[in-house]
Amino acid sequence: MTDTITGAGTFYDGLTPAARPVGFRLDSAGLTLFDAAGRQIEQWPRDDVTRIDAHGPVVRLAHRTGDARLEVTAPTLLPLLRAARIDIHGRSDARTRRKILGWSLAAAVSLVWLVVWGIPAIGSQVAALLPVSTEIRLGEVVRPQILKMLSPDRKGARVCETPAGRAALDALTRPILARITPVVPVKVEVIDFPVPNAFALPGGQVLITRGLLEKASGPNRIAAIFAHELGHVQNRDSLRRLGEAASLSFLFGVVIGDFSGSTLAIAVGRGLIDASYSRGAETRADAFAAEILRGDGRAPVELADALEEITRDQPDLGVLNWFSTHPDTEKRIAALRALGAAAANKTPLIGDAAWQDLKRICKN
Length: 364
Hints:
The chain has 14 helices and eleven strands. It is of the alpha+beta class. The strands form two sheets. It has a seven-stranded antiparallel beta sheet, with helices on one face. A four-stranded mixed beta sheet has the order 8-9-11-10, sandwiched between helices. The radius of gyration is 24 Å and the shape is elongated.
């Protein structure tokens, strides 16, 4: 390739829906993107540049292995790309087609539900109608996006795993799981993220952050929070939130005309993190946790103590703060304390050595 192609377009980083105006240069080295000040922000090797499907005069160029893309409104660009021997036939492998088709179908179903019941009711309908196998698959789809959003470099938050830490985590959660019949298989993991928090994802996935382990004063506090998140799993609350987020994403697509699978996955993943559970959902999860604790001879006040501990002196860290994902925390603490503080069993669920192993699980 001897000629250089330059121009202007719109860049999407594949992690957020935000559009960014950029300049570009395509030469023998590859595709280079620049911001408004002329600073380089991306460089893709020429062999990794491919075209993805677009309509009308819009040409979309993407990196073969990622979701980032450049959109250029220039119908005369295609002959230049052909002359430069860039893949202009589009990324149309079966996996990509299935992804786009699946999200398009989900969007269409969401529209029907929106017309009949309204967005608030859609989540409940999703949770009631979708089989467990579909919920598990949906959880697998949104999990990578959530891990990306929880990492500074957007490459994905690391899942922490050491043999001793894993054994301690299993020992801590096993007695709680033994008291229920899970609606979906439960998988609990620790992720390397500094903010104290825990998430219940569709499909039985529970993520506990490194920051939560660091701030908790003992294993029983983590067990109480896990019991609360397990209540969300049993009530399929995350699936309800996913249905609402998908519906809103579809409406967003109607407005801007973008129904790509990556955009919807990003919006749904962001919705699972950003959106607060309803007051009723939190109350039900608290009641579930209280019942689990009572069944082990413990007191609901353990969950109240855990909530109070992790929110104490917590800085404002935006949407990932425990306060934003768990509304009315003070009222919840008061309600849990009102259930009684007496507990016959105050024995730690795991010993101090195992607790230290768990706290070091991210230091491998």
